[in-house]
Specification:
Elements lengths: L8 H17 L3 H5 L9 E5 L7 H8 L4 E6 L2 H14 L4 E5 L12 E6 L9 H11 E9 L6 H11 L2 E6 L4 E5 L1
Parallel strand pairs: 1-2, 1-4, 2-3, 4-5
Antiparallel strand pairs: 5-7, 6-7
Helix pairs in contact: 5-6
Length: about 180
Amino acid sequence: MRRVDRMSDLGFRLMIAAFWLLDTFFPYVDRRVRGFGLAPGMTVVDYGCGPGRYTVFYSRLAGPRGRVYAVDIHAMAIDLVNRKKERFGLENVEAVLADGYHSGLPAGTAHLVTAIDIFFGIHDQKAFLAELKRIARPDGILVIDDGHQSRRATRQQIEAAGSWKIVEETRDHLKCRPA
């Protein structure tokens, strides 16, 4: 992985502040997550979890029989997720520090993999999407959004990588299945 894929510590802190403001005045994460198809007992990988704003909702929806892996390349993200885990009693959450695009999770782990608001910043989309496919079950789902790029660019990058097939498109996100 190239160093530029990892946000600076200052950038990470600014992102946390922006998310706090957004979630305080325009809370929508809960409603958004409900459109991802997450059900009790599922294993979810929150890839690029950041401060864990989605992780908490995934944990609640997956329930005590489910499992949530909050994966990020930034150590500050892992620390924040671990704090949320303790604060909210999220026993089904495990924070995982990724090594580049490699999560370290076993192959075929996840029913659902999400990559929210990160794809635009990934420099090697093919390697990134290959890792997401590796950790997904053969019948798994990838939910990915555009972040700060056009839908056209997102679609082109997914199609060019060849590891995922887009099966559903909403205004908010794309759902993909392993190709």
